[in-house]
Automatic annotation (TrEMBL):
Transmembrane segments: none annotated. It comes from Paraconexibacter antarcticus. The lineage of its organism: Bacteria, Bacillati, Actinomycetota, Thermoleophilia, Solirubrobacterales. InterPro entries: FAD/NAD-bd_sf. This is NAD(P)/FAD-dependent oxidoreductase. PANTHER family: DEHYDROGENASE-RELATED, PHYTOENE DEHYDROGENASE.
């Protein structure tokens, strides 16, 4: 019987393990931490009974993928819930903008020329998003099945975010796009910096930005349940530093960052592969604060009170300046802050009127300072009285993010810079992104296509590559096109 060892139990490691186990492979999963789940772990971080998501929180791009169609996690404890407003962007003076699942509703709220331009851009992309997403969950080097849709998508995604945002004239529409574009952790003047924003905005209209009921741990929990049904062995507290520690399994899956894969493989890895992986570039970091907030956040922009995700950073110009500084290694005075209000969609997350609030600021890689005050100042700016409602907080700096999860190098929670080269070729320039140049050994982390998120597609793709190499047939997936890409993370 073919056997496999999966090192790392983030959503991609678990997805790889499940894909292998379902194909009849004997699977053993080894996790360094004392809990399974990686970026999908949820914990009581502030007050007893108040559940916070430790990394991944909202999941617009995990709903209809080849992995989710192969494995119905909703039949094993996972339930998706949607907020009324998918994401919002407050501005000074109670102004702001919001995105609904309906393109038309979003355009109507923006109004006038900007509303019509939002409709003209995102209407056709939403209509064809299934075909687009079917292409972008794969490695980029393939013959597209939907060339016309991909051409339309590429024409706008290849633009610098600062340029595409000028398509709209008003502060509200510009800021609404700037907030999703900032998920890329890239300066707005760089090529292809629109790609993440265009993808996420379109996904909001096609699928929404749901949360997992009870916390993101429900995602990994459903995978763990299925793995146990397939007889997989799951072990925690096991730190692997060398392939020699694994014995001689037929397949090895490494859910680790590229540099860690090089270290684990050692001399077995061909020099050219090791050189390519060592060149992998990580992006800026995240400084995360969890709050216990009495009564929720008192946003002056009313739709923000109904939003599952709120982008906090002010105008397009302000966010662009903050992202440019962060990318250059300078801490901005007013950083871009991403806020998730999971209890807006999932009331079970609140307890006795106290709500968990998830917030992280973009900071320079490896930032050693304290951004807590800057995060709170940004929230207080758009929600006066916020500080008075804080009952408890839990702080995890960029350095602590890496200590908590070694894949988040320098606090890089999306596992790799979204620069043009790495958006096309990750983790190295090759037609075989999951291969490590060693028979039976593969990398399946978010450093591989299609990138970060709790969708499991990196692990699914890598595991299928391994099964194909070993001549093992896999069960087919429904023929409908996929819809899912995680580019940027939150």
């Amino acid at each position: 019987m073919t056997n496999a060892v999966v090192v790392g139990s983030g959503p991609n490691g678990l997805a790889a393990a499940l894909t292998l186990a379902a194909a009849g492979v004997e699977v053993r999963v080894l996790e360094m931490a004392d809990r399974l789940g990686g970026g999908t772990r949820s914990s009581e971080l502030t007050l007893p009974g108040l559940i916070h998501d430790e990394c991944s929180a909202a999941h617009p791009l995990a709903l209809d993928t080849p992995f989710s169609r192969r494995f119905d996690l909703t039949a094993h404890g996972l339930k998706w819930i949607w907020p009324e407003v998918q994401y919002a962007h407050p501005l000074d003076g109670g102004r702001g903008a919001a995105a609904w699942r309906s393109v038309e509703a979003t355009a109507d709220a923006l109004g006038g020329r900007d509303g019509r331009r939002w409709q003209r851009l995102f209407g056709p992309l939403t209509d064809h998003f299934d075909g687009i997403a079917a292409e972008i969950v794969q490695p980029m080097l393939h013959v597209p099945r939907h060339p016309l849709a991909m051409g339309a998508f590429g024409a706008v995604s290849g633009l610098p975010a600062a340029l595409l945002a000028r398509r709209w004239r008003g502060d509200e529409a510009q800021a609404l796009f700037a907030g999703v574009a900032a998920h890329a952790f890239r300066p707005f003047g760089s090529p292809m910096s629109s790609a993440v924003g265009v993808t996420l905005a379109t996904a909001a209209h096609r699928f929404g930005w749901p949360v997992a009921e009870g916390g993101s741990s429900a995602i990994s929990g459903a995978m763990i349940t299925l793995l146990e049904q397939h007889g997989a062995r799951l072990e925690t507290g096991v730190h692997i530093t060398s392939l020699d520690e694994l014995g001689a399994p037929d397949i090895v899956m490494l859910d680790v960052a590229p540099a860690a894969a090089v270290d684990i493989a050692g001399d077995r890895m061909p020099h050219r592969v090791a050189r390519g992986l060592r060149r992998f570039r990580h992006g800026p970091g995240a400084f995360k604060v969890e709050f216990a907030v009495e009564g929720g956040v008192p946003w002056t922009h009313e739709p923000s009170r109904l939003a599952g995700t709120v982008h906090v950073g002010g105008s397009l110009a302000e966010i662009a300046a903050a992202e440019k500084a962060t990318g250059a290694g300078r801490m901005p005075e007013r950083p871009f802050v991403l806020v998730c209000q999971q209890s807006v969609a999932d009331p079970t997350r609140a307890k006795d009127g106290v709500h968990p609030l998830y917030a992280y600021a973009h900071v320079p890689a490896g930032y050693t300072g304290d951004a807590t005050g800057a995060i709170e100042a940004q929230l207080e700016r758009f929600a006066p009285g916020f500080r008075d409602r804080i009952l408890a907080r839990h702080v995890r700096s960029a350095v602590a993010m890496e200590e908590h999860n070694v894949n988040y190098v320098g606090g890089d929670i999306v596992t790799g810079a979204n620069d043009p080269l790495q958006m096309v070729f990750r983790p190295r320039v090759t037609a075989h992104p999951y291969s490590l140049g060693i028979d039976g050994v593969y990398i399946c982390s978010a450093a591989t296509p299609p990138g970060a998120g709790a969708h499991g597609m990196c692990g699914f793709n890598a595991a299928n590559a391994a099964l194909k190499a070993h001549g093992i047939e896999t069960a087919g997936t429904p023929a409908a096109p996929a819809a899912g890409l995680a580019v940027g993370g939150w």
